[in-house]
Automatic annotation (TrEMBL):
Top-tier EC class: transferase
Organism: Asarcornis scutulata
Keywords (A to Z) from UniProt: Acyltransferase, Cytoplasm, Endoplasmic reticulum, Endosome, Lipid metabolism, Membrane, Sensory transduction, Signal, Transferase, Transmembrane, Transmembrane helix, Vision
Protein name as catalogued: Lecithin retinol acyltransferase
Active site positions, chain numbering: C170 (acyl-thioester intermediate)
Domain of life: Eukaryota
Membrane topology, as annotated: Single-pass membrane protein
Swiss-Prot/TrEMBL GO biological process terms: retinol metabolic process; visual perception; vitamin A metabolic process
Length: 239
C-alpha cells in the first residue's frame, strides 16, 4: 500500500503544480471527454479547422500557456501525436490506452519517461484550443518532405515509445515526420534560458543563501553543507 501511495502522492502534487502554472488540465477519468464530447468551457473557444480544410500530412500546433502541443494530420479527422502516458507500460489493452489521457497518466508518463504516439480526433487533439496549420514550414523550407511521406512516417511510429522532455517530445516527433530530422525549438529555448540562469552570477548568491537557510533550519551536516558547496562551486565555474 505504501509503494502505491508514494507515486499517487507525487502525481497529485505535480497535478496541483500544473494547475497553479495555469496549464489547461486534462480530463479526469469518467468525464464527458472520455466519451468524445468536448469539455465544458466558461467562454466559447475557437473551433478547430474543419477536417475538409486540412490535408493529409499537415503539421498541427495547439498553443498552450507554457508550451505548444504538436501533431500530424492523417486524414479522416485523425491526428497522430506523442503524449507522455504510463498506461502503455502497464497494459496491452488497446481500449484502455485509447481513452483520453488523464492528468495522472500524463504526469506518471513524464516521471517514468514513457509515452505513446496515439491517434485521436482533431477535436480531442485540440482540446478546445486553436490550431495552427504548417506554421513551422517557414523555418524549414529547405527540409520540407512530401505530405504523404510525413503522414506515412507518423503512421509507422504509432504505438508505445520512450519519452524525454528535452530529447524526445511531441515536437521532435512531428519535425522528424515532416522535415526529416527531430528538432525541438521549445527545447532549444529552454536550454538557452537555463544557460542564462547559470551564467547569471546572482544564481551563485541565491544558492549560497538557500544553502545557509538549509543549514540554519536543518543543522550543520554533510547532507546540507556538501550540496551547498558543490552547487555553488559548479555555478561559479559555469558562470
Amino acid at each position: 500500500a505504501m509503494k502505491k501511495a508514494v507515486p499517487q502522492a507525487a502525481a497529485l502534487l505535480l497535478e496541483k503544480l500544473l494547475l497553479l502554472a495555469h496549464l489547461r488540465p486534462l480530463p479526469a477519468a469518467g468525464t464527458d471527454t472520455d466519451r468524445g464530447e468536448p469539455p465544458p468551457a466558461t467562454a466559447p473557444a475557437p473551433a478547430p479547422p474543419a477536417a475538409g480544410c486540412l490535408q493529409r500530412g499537415d503539421l498541427l500546433e495547439v498553443p498552450r500557456t507554457l508550451f505548444v502541443h504538436f501533431g500530424i494530420y492523417l486524414g479522416e479527422n485523425r491526428v497522430a501525436h506523442l503524449m507522455p502516458d504510463i498506461l502503455p507500460a502497464l497494459t496491452d489493452d488497446r481500449r484502455q490506452i485509447q481513452r483520453v489521457v488523464t492528468n495522472k497518466r500524463l504526469i506518471l508518463g513524464v516521471v517514468t519517461k514513457t509515452a505513446s504516439i496515439r491517434v485521436d480526433t482533431v477535436e480531442d487533439f485540440a482540446y478546445g484550443g486553436s490550431i495552427l496549420v504548417n506554421h513551422m514550414d517557414r523555418l524549414f523550407k529547405d527540409r520540407l518532405l512530401g505530405s504523404e511521406e510525413a503522414a506515412r512516417r507518423a503512421e509507422k511510429l504509432v504505438g508505445a515509445t520512450a519519452y524525454s522532455l528535452l530529447w524526445n517530445n511531441c515536437e521532435h516527433f512531428v519535425t522528424y515526420c515532416r522535415y526529416g530530422a527531430p528538432v525541438s525549438l521549445q527545447t532549444d529555448k529552454f536550454c538557452e534560458t537555463v544557460k542564462m540562469i547559470i551564467r547569471d552570477q546572482r544564481s551563485v548568491l541565491a544558492s549560497v543563501l538557500v544553502g545557509l537557510a538549509a543549514v540554519v533550519c536543518l543543522g550543520l551536516a554533510p547532507s546540507t553543507t556538501l550540496p551547498t558547496i558543490l552547487v555553488t562551486f559548479l555555478l561559479w565555474m559555469a558562470g
